[in-house]
């Protein structure tokens, strides 16, 4: 979303001296995104450096994650990019470090990928994203690091308490019921691994109908693969009436299933995963909407969207259609 921590050209020019990317040409704050402070950075390039042809980068100042939590995310991006997946590689400085500090925040530069995100994905794009997510899950099985989901059960309970006063009694009832159900739902038979955990439409870039990039791995963690699928389809395959668009959903899931077949336990857990995924973003959007952090540029997202998706999933829980 946002720029919470401003950076001046002089501050960045000074910081860039640690890299072999040449002098700063342009610095521009990015409005999109909601967690970190992001900037497009263009440099003059340095033909003698490690990134001779690269002049376009994204600078992120991490607002929530601490430096010790970031190696999981940044090294996952590097790992997936080495496996041929279109994830932006973090840039290492002259000392081989990809994580520094700028204006009191942990900060990193990553390669700026080509392409734009799509607001209205078509069936072919959903199919591509389904296949891509399955490939990311399979590749992630070899990723050696683990990180607990910061938006798991304890976070759900804490956040539900914090936002409760902003809800109607009916909304409070729905939330309390879901938080309690999710807390006791048996997940022990479900496959786990490295998940993106926020693979919304604005985190995939396309050139035409071809995926050119997967960005924003800063919620990535070790969790259920099926939960990641549910998060992704709740955004990519949702229709205007808060029911799935069947053609996009089937294309997505069939392409996923062709690369990593769903297990019987996953088919059974599907409705609860869709609900967990909707609850996760209802809660975070409520929190960001009613209890926002101060920001120079900010664009809170509408929490009612996920309230409606959750209510619909509770009314009618669609089976896994593969
Ligand atoms: N590697 C990248 N290549 C191209 N654009 C990027 C890249 N990383 C981020 N962006 C742009 O910055 C925006 C915000 O980034 P994002 O990681 O989603 O922010 P946040 O972590 O705050 O949610 C994206 O919507 C995209 O336009
Ligand atoms: N995708 C989430 C919030 C995180 O936003 P992002 O800009 O980091 O993708 C939502 O839509 O609520």
From TrEMBL:
**Matching PANTHER family, A to Z?**
AMINOGLYCOSIDE PHOSPHOTRANSFERASE DOMAIN-CONTAINING PROTEIN (PTHR21064:SF6), AMINOGLYCOSIDE PHOSPHOTRANSFERASE DOMAIN-CONTAINING PROTEIN-RELATED (PTHR21064)
Task: Name the source organism.
Answer: Leeia aquatica
Q: Identify the CDD domains for this entry.
A: HomoserineK_II
One GO BP annotation of this record: threonine biosynthetic process
* The entry's keywords: Amino-acid biosynthesis, ATP-binding, Kinase, Nucleotide-binding, Threonine biosynthesis, Transferase
The pathway that the record names for this protein is:
Amino-acid biosynthesis; L-threonine biosynthesis; L-threonine from L-aspartate: step 4/5
Protein family membership: Belongs to the pseudomonas-type ThrB family.
Q: Sorted alphabetically, which Pfam families does this protein's record hold?
A: APH
Give GO MF terms, alphabetically: ATP binding; homoserine kinase activity
Superkingdom of the organism of origin: Bacteria
Enzymatic reactions? L-homoserine + ATP = O-phospho-L-homoserine + ADP + H(+)
The EC number of this protein is 2.7.1.39
Question: Which protein, by its recorded name, is this?
Answer: Homoserine kinase
Which residue ranges does the record assign to the Aminoglycoside phosphotransferase domain? 27-262
